[in-house]
Write a structure and sequence with these properties.
The protein has 223 residues and is an all-alpha fold. Helices cover 67% and strands 0% of the residues.
Amino acid sequence: MRAGLNVKTDRREPDVTEATRGPHTRAHRTQAERREQTRTALLDATIDCLVEIGYARTSVQEICARAGVSKGAVQHHFSAKAELMAAAVAHLTTKLKSQLAASLGTLPSGADGIPTAIDLLWEGYSGTLSKAVTELWVAARTDPELRAAIRPVDRALGRATMEHITAVAGDLPRERAEILFWLTVNLTRGLALDAELGGDPVRRKELLEEWKRIAVSFYRPDL
């Protein structure tokens, strides 16, 4: 059974104590390791806040409380809240890109792989990433600093994923493969929003199945 792509943030592991530390475990983490652990905790906590309570209620104080760090730690790693938000989405996006690359890389090329590729894009774009990014894009409409911070992250995900999709598309002309990809992304994002608003899951499934049929028809030279 193929695993889904709803990426979840990692919870921080507790520090290793003397009682649990093995003979080959280092007694102390390096400064770089401590910095990376703090940064990851902040990014995971930011994503959790966006998904669970939304952007409007996400404060630096709430992020720090969930991450178990001081407000000074945030200022040490990020110069502004917008930068922290963009970094959190980039952090989650990196995980999603890795999972998508691994899953798409196993598909047959050509029309036979397209339906499953659409399923994978739907799973990726409708999960945790979708919830977090939707919160940020709504806020970014009236926040130029936030919009400037998250736009490159969104574009990077699109470019990276499109390269994998064009590989799955096989001998489909690149311009057709790119159209197929962007239509799929925009459809899945719209359906993800529909799900958030309580839309009919049966209708969403029917629309996805119909899109798969249409997408496979891209391989017909008369269209």
